[in-house]
Amino acid sequence: MQRSIVNSYELRNDFPIFRKKINGKELVYLDNASTTQKPYTVIDSITDFYSNYNSNIHRAVYQLAEEATNMYEQSRGKIANFINVRPEEIIFTRNTTESINLIAHSWARTNLKKDDVIVITEIEHHSNIVPWQILCQERGTRLEYVGIDGNGFLDLEYMIELISSRKVKMVSLSHMSNVLGTIVPIERIIKIAHEHDIPVLVDGAQSVPHMPINVKNMDCDFLVFSAHKMLGPTGVGILYAKKEYLDKMPPFMGGGDMIKEVFKFHTNYNDVPYKFEAGTPNIADVVGFSAAIEYLERIGMENIRKHEIYLTEYALESMSSLDYITVYGPRDTKYRGGVISFNIADIHPHDLATIMNDHGIAIRSGHHCAQVLMERLDVPATSRASFYIYNTKEEIDKFVNAIKEAGRIFKI
Amino acid sequence: MSDDIYREIILDHYRNPRNKGKVENADVTVHDSNPLCGDEIDIHLKVDEGVISDVKFEGKGCAISQASASMLTELVMGKDLKIVKDLKKEDMLENIGLTNLGPARIKCALLSLKVLKVSMVKYYSENDPQSAEQIRSESSLY
What we know:
The structure holds 2 protein chains of 2 kinds. By secondary structure, chain A is an alpha/beta fold. Chain A has helices spanning 8-11, 40-52, 63-83, 96-111, 130-139, 156-164, 186-195, 215-218, 243-248, 283-299, 301-320, 349-358, 371-377, 393-409; strands at residues 21-22, 25-26, 28-29, 90-93, 117-121, 142-146, 168-174, 200-203, 222-226, 237-241, 259-262, 267-269, 325-328, 339-344, 361-362, 364-366, 382-386. In chain A, helix 2 runs antiparallel to helix 10 (283-299), helix 4 (96-111) packs parallel to helix 5 and helix 11 packs parallel to helix 14. By secondary structure, chain B is an alpha+beta fold. Chain B has 7 helices and 3 strands. Chain B has helices spanning 2-5, 8-15, 63-76, 81-85, 89-96, 103-127, 129-138; strands spanning 28-34, 39-48, 51-60. Chain B has a 3-stranded antiparallel β-sheet, covered by helices on one side. In chain B, a hairpin with a 4-residue loop joins strand 1 (28-34) and strand 2 (39-48). Chain B is globular, with a radius of gyration of 14 Å. At the A-B interface, helix 12 of A face helix 1 of B.
């Protein structure tokens, strides 16, 4: 088994929440695919902003406003650098969901017409399904799904077949499944799509926080992710889009900051990226996100990926000794992130999550906003454990012991 | 804690549900689900001369939602509708022995009662709108 060089025991001291006791037990937080905990540096940077720099940005000429504007724009620069793109290609939204909606509303609505096909997959989160359904109802475009095999791998052959048909005008897919952990061969799919001049939107909500991402190598046209899944605050989403797209896209929302000049009956819009950031943005949390990126960069994304491979392999191995557990998704951690969905005999995931909570363990239970995938797996729900930098081998032992305890309570 | 919730009787009703299935010529059938959990319950109700002559449920979900539905059908089978009409959620939880649930899981335990109450509202709304309104106003479930 690969070893981890991330000292998660030491890192835990950076996160105030781990001082909290749940039912008298130490918190074992295994719901990181949903949202992650925040280190002091992130929490402090938000307090620091409100205490020392609070003012609105891009407007006033006094010192405070200049400082706040600089902090906000420096954060944009840091995020751009983190995924290797230009700052003007980074748009701040509320979350991944809003980023996808922005593309559906602005780019897709103006570029797709009746009978054009949008390709998505069976592993998508509802946020990468519903915006396209809304568009289809409005424009008469059509949705096509690429399925998965029994191990949770995409049916690439069908994907290629679809892309080669002339009807397809857009591909939108998860880089990593929030349920199965499957990491899809994204660069290959993008390369094939580009051979047919089809733009690709990559939902990086689960991948960007957990592995090195270089957009220049990946060559996606759109990349979306959320700050709160990578140690940052809630309320900040990122949309990366190639500048050639952003320049041609109409605004998403109208209002302050997205304008150059407003006349009685028309408006000249601001330059990219400001054209897509109407109204006062979430300044303090954008600044807080910058501190989260600094924290992640100090550890190194390659090391984070290795740490999660180490934990996932250990968990999969420990769980495989219990024959009443069904684990979904790829077995090989080369193709799987730190997300494990599973079911235990006839114990419903909600009952398991209740028992886990007795032990201070937070796991997710339910459909994980992926009902299309649940239908494909033919289960109403799954339990899910998902890992991050602060999780330890001992926590996985506690998690597996709690599974055994559930087996005892349910007399399996 | 979980040992107090998942007692023998709950597991028994979960794995061997009573009165599960459909009712021939049911007077009312009502379906509802718990969006948080995805628990689903259908209740089929047949009333003869003011008495619940048959009640069955169909559903899927967690042990708490399914066992409590099974126990609820046993509780109200053959009872006068006037008595069932006044069944409070506290009585129901007491009766099935689940008084120690947190706010998230209590919804699982009460889903079947909610569906039963809606069934009665639907039944009464045709021949006794006053009782229908009474159930609706007294129930804080919906």
